[in-house]
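Example 9 (inverse folding). The structure is encoded as follows.
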């Protein structure tokens, strides 16, 4: 069965509503610092990956053509054309 009593209000015996404790200034600053450092790490990782993709593609193409030229120079046939 579903509980349909509504939200729970935290009250004292006198009828006063209990307010949750407010975080201190040090806690707020620490949370902002952790958020800032996390954001910085994520941004550096993103930009590193973004700049590395073209470099790795060019390096892969150079390696592929270097391997093909070495194999061709040594007389190894890698791909045979069938007509």
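The amino acid assigned to each position is listed next.
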């Amino acid at each position: 069965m579903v509980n349909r009593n509504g939200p729970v209000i935290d009250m004292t015996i006198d009828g006063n509503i209990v307010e949750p404790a407010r975080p201190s200034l040090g806690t707020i600053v620490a949370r902002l610092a952790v958020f800032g450092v996390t954001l910085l790490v994520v941004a550096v990782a993103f930009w590193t990956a973004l700049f590395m993709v073209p470099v790795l593609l060019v390096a892969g193409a150079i390696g592929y053509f270097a391997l093909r030229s070495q194999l061709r120079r040594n007389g190894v046939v890698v791909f045979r054309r069938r007509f």
